[in-house]
Each structure stands twice: as structure tokens, then as C-alpha cells.
Amino acid sequence: MSPIALGKALDAAKFSKLHRKFWLLAGLGILLDGFDFFIIGVASPLIQEDFGINAWQKGLVSAAAIVGAMVGAAVLGPLGDKLGRARIFKYDLIMFVVFSVGCMLAPEIWSLIAFRFLLGIAIGLDYPIAASYLAEVLPQKNRGRWLVSAFSLQAVGIMLGAAVGVAILLILPETTSWRWMLGFGIIPALIIIVMRRGVPESPRWLAQNGREEEAVKVVEELTNVPVVVTDKDREKVESPSEGIRALFQPQLFKKDMIRRTIFTSVPWFLMDIAVYGVGIFTPTLIAAFAFGGQMDQSNTTFIIDDIASTEWTAILDIFLVLGFITAIFLVEKLGRVRLQSLGFVFMTVGLSILAVTTILQGDDAGGYLGLVFLGYGVFNYFQNAGPNATTYALPAEIFPSDIRAAGHGFAAGFAKFGAALGVFFFPILLDSWGKPITLFLMAGISLVALIVTVALRIEPAGKSLDEISGRKAGGIAARPTPA
Length: 483
Known about the structure:
- This protein is mostly helical.
- About 75% of the residues lie in helices and about 0% in strands.
- The strands form two sheets. The chain has a two-stranded parallel ribbon. A two-stranded antiparallel ribbon has the order 3-4.
């Protein structure tokens, strides 16, 4: 049998047990992001009560890890293009463990904020590295489905966070329970570190960096066919920037890349403002909807209300899981762009329902809880059935291999900037503007994200990575193909 070009062999391969193993090892880091996403929302009221912090400090605690993730993804993510994917995600979770210990033992609020920031760097670094690795080893057929499936492990982490949060509050109903909540993530992180030890490097990266024998070995093990490295497999655009210039990655803003960069980063940025702002403070909002926000009458009442709002939030998070399941089954059939657009439409609807409900409720805490459940159900379901899944997959697919981690890192980092804005300002806006205006603002942001998605759409479904990148004999095509 004649050797097949390395890239073509990877695209045409049948999905095997080895693919599934690499998928799991690369995607498990997203589980920790989901866990931290949920658990800080449960821990935040306890931290506020324990340290006696104000709304600004509470916002900093919640936003610190997200700002760190922005730095990890945008600044350090491009290291995956320079040093390789596998080398970095073998070690970034060690950082997660070390800084989780720091969070758990933090003596006062500012040290906690610092450790949360450092923890976020580890989480953010895993985003572009894992996504790039997966896109480069997965077959063309159902590539989007498996990328979305990997990101759906975030929902597993969220449900783990829900279970851990409720269990710890029931076992140890004290304001200091937040320390055990933040420290629990050490356990899954250590397990993932052990599992990742034997994962090989991305063969596409190896081929582009002069390690052709290793690349061939990995691909032949994956595909069971003889392969050869061709000039197209070796082709590069240019090396990513380093240091502070990595924040801007000038090669991502050149004429042939600017549309891809805006399309992958801006909707993700806007989505994360709403998803993180509303999502992390779901227990706080539920407490306000159900109890009128009166969670400070006594320590006993405070803990009971926090348990109740956490249980409500855990029930509503079932819609997050159902949304991911829907995305997994529809992402290839409907395409990434259509799924993302539909998601933004119904996120706008869900947030509008919640905003209208706050107006109808007035001072009647506990009233219209059916509408609260409906609004949150629609918002949670469609964020994961659409943009929360597709924004992770798109930059991993549409950027060329040699700047894939830089492109995904910039998009993820810009998104985390949006998440930080949402998390930091959401409680402040709730206090100063009230729930209706704040929720309508989040709905408007989702609507803008829809407009950007439709205007700049680039659909990678059913195409090889080379076709999506627009690779020609002379390099990268100037215009991506719209859906």
C-alpha cells in the first residue's frame, strides 16, 4: 500500500479506541473549569460572610480566576505552538493543584484573590492546548461532535461542583466550608495528571517542527496505514509572538486572518459576559427570587438558605447537561454557525423572561417561581446547546495548525476577559441598577453576539483542516469561505 500524506491520513481515519483515549486525556482539563465555575458561586456567599467583604471584594474573588484564565489562554497559550501541545498540558494541572492548596489555606481576602488569579492561569492555559491537540488528531468526520463532547465535560465538572457544594454544606454547615469546597478540586486534578503522563505529541505539530519520524509513528499507530510527511504537512504561516506581544498576536490581525479572529473571539467574549455573570451568581439570584435576598439574618438561617439556593441551582444545571447532549447530536447536522445562532436567540429569550419576572415579582419574594424556572431553564439549555459549545470548537478548527494555539488562545483569553467583566460587575450592577435592568442588559449582549455570528459566519462542518485553513501552494487563502 502506498504511503498517504500525514494530514490526509488523520482526516480520513476511522475513530478508534486510541482516538477515544486521546480525546479523554485532552478534554478532562475542561472538567476542572466547570467545577471551579460552579463551586466559586456556592463558596462566594460563604467567603463574604467569613471575611466580611464588600461587593467590590466579592466581585474580585469571583473574577480573579477568570482574569488569570485570560492570561493563561492568551499569553501562555501560544507556547503550545512553540513547545508543543502535549508537553504543556502534562504540567499545567500541577499548577492547578499547587494554587488550589493556596486558595484553601488563604489567611485573608487578598491572598485568596492572588491564589485564585494564579489558579486561573492554569485553567486558561489548558483551553487552547487541549483544543488544538484534539482538532489535530481527530478525524474529519464528526470532528465537531467530538470537540463539543470534550467541552461538554465542563457540565460534568459543574455537576461535580454541585454535588460537592451541597454535600459539604450538609456535612459541615459553617461559613468556613468554602475552604473545603475550593480544595476539593485537587482530587480530580491529581487523577488527571497521572492519566496524562503517556499522551503523545500532536503529529501535525511534530511534522511542522522537524520531528517527522515521531509524527509518522503517532499517525500510523492512530490510523493503521503507512503515512509520509509532505510539503503541505510541513507548511507554516509564521511563528506566534512571544512575551507581551502575545496578548495581541499581530499575525491574527493580518488581512487573511482578521475575519477569523473577530468571528471566533467577539461572540465568545459577549457570551461569557452573560454566561459567567448570570451563571456564577445563580445561587445569589435564586436566593433573591425565592427568599428576597434575606440571607443574613443569622448564621443558621444563612447556611440553610445557601443550601436551598445551591440545591435549586443544581437542579437548574441539569439543563446545562441536556444542552450539551443536544449540541453533540446536532453540531454536524446543523453546523456550528446555525447552532450558535439559535443558542444566542434563546439565551436572549431566557434572560428576557427572567428580567420580566423580576418586574412582575416586585416585593413578592417567592412569587412567579415557575417563570424563574422557565427563564433559567431556557438560558441554561440553549447556552450549552449552542454558543458555549461552538465557541470552543470553532477556533480549534478554522485557524492553521502553526498558529492554532495562538488563535484559540486569543479567542479564549478575550472570552475570559468578558467573563471577568461579567463576574466583577454583575453583583455591582445588581446592587446599583437592580435585577430587571441588569438582566435586560445581559439579554442585549446576547443579541449583539447573534448579530456578529451571522455577519461574519465561517462554517467548518464537513471540511478538512487544510480546506478550512484555505491552504494553497502559496500559503493561506485571503478569504475564508462563509457558510
